[in-house]
Amino acid sequence: MKDLTHGNEAKLILLFSLPMLLGNVFQQFYNMVDSIVVGQFVGKQALAAVGQSFPVIFVFVALVTGFGMASNILIAQYFGAKKFDRLQAVVDTSLAFTVVFSLAVTALGILGAPVILRLMRTPGDVLPGAVLYLRIIFAGTIASFAYNTFSAIQRGLGDSRTPLYALIISTLVNVALDLAFVVFFGWGVAGVAIATVIAQVVSVSWTALYLAKKDSVFKLDVTHIRFDRAIFREIVRLGLPSGIQQGLVGAGLMTLTGVVNQFGTNPAAAFSVAGKLDSFAVMPAMSMSLAIASFTGQNLGAGRKDRVHRGLAYALSIALAVSGTIAAILYFRGDWFIRLFSGDREVIRIGTEYFKIVAFAYVAQTVMFCFSGVLRGAGAMVFTMLMTLMSMWIVRVPLALVFSRYWGTSGIWWSVVCGFAVGMTGTILYYAFGNWGKRALVMPLAD
Hints:
This protein is mostly helical. It has one domain. The protein contains 13 helices and no strands. Helix 1 runs antiparallel to helix 2 (about 45-80), helix 2 packs parallel to helix 4 (about 125-140) and helix 9 (about 265-300) runs antiparallel to helix 10 (about 305-340). The radius of gyration is 21 Å and the shape is globular. It starts with 8 loop residues before the first helix and ends in a 14-residue tail after the last helix.
């Protein structure tokens, strides 16, 4: 485990965030490579079809990620307390929940894909490919969810490298299979979906074999999993707010995608590309938010609130420097990156317009994420969930519906800027005037 209560704050936060940043980069390559390959070798309808799936999958992945974060917290606590029997119970319960939840999501996704996509107003020429892609991806849900659980276990034990290695290997597999299945076999949208599922199986197999063979404080034995109700209640208590928060983001993205879809295939394809590039633009802020949350928790627990303030200042400086640079590049030369996905002139024009507007939101988003990281580290999970609800559902979605009537897709892009501006303002005000620094951070460990 890494002690963040001593040493140079900037160096600690930067080194702690780098493995998470690299992991996020490789994880995003899955969907991005799918989009680039189909956009270049199949067409804009296929590009839009892949893009339609992202917010749908994000909702379910967000829930399991929230529970994974809870497992991570419990495993770290029991590991530090040397209560290895309770740690084993957390591992077993997490795996049992992952299997049951993933099977339920697989069934729901395969059966409900057409209904979900029609509710999102997916254009008619995009719908068949989107249904096919989404069903294949949902068929591989158990591999994706199991990887998230295994990586949460490893991070709880202080190992952030093994999940990263697994992602690097699986990403290379995904790239190779995408090209083989689409360019040489001509399988189109189905080819990139199958490649993604196979790559996810590779990543979960790598992590599972590592955990099974490694000398560890617990045993990974799927034939002797025992479910602990008390542990499960604790996982739900810790993980549900975060899962709901990210689920709200995903549901909001689904709604916004539905608004964009009303304007046809070209905007849908452009929005699909923009979403992939958005993910890279906000990754530094997301990774810094996770790092500053851990940093805040440890230092508040040690009574070092002064280090929290300095750590936030350093985190903001680093994240804004990186995100600001990416925002400037996309503002001035966003068309270069859109051409990686599609050569269609109208798709390029709409995507370029998107970045001319939304680039301003990256700064607000970065500030919001960094301040939210401090608040989550202090235990103010409910406030950050409510702020996400406000910025997405009370500001962004309603404004997108209203602005799009008068300014078309440009109005939707401006709603994104407004949503993050409100979220940034709310988190700054709570940081300045709220009682987040007085919360009890250390939960009693169950026996």
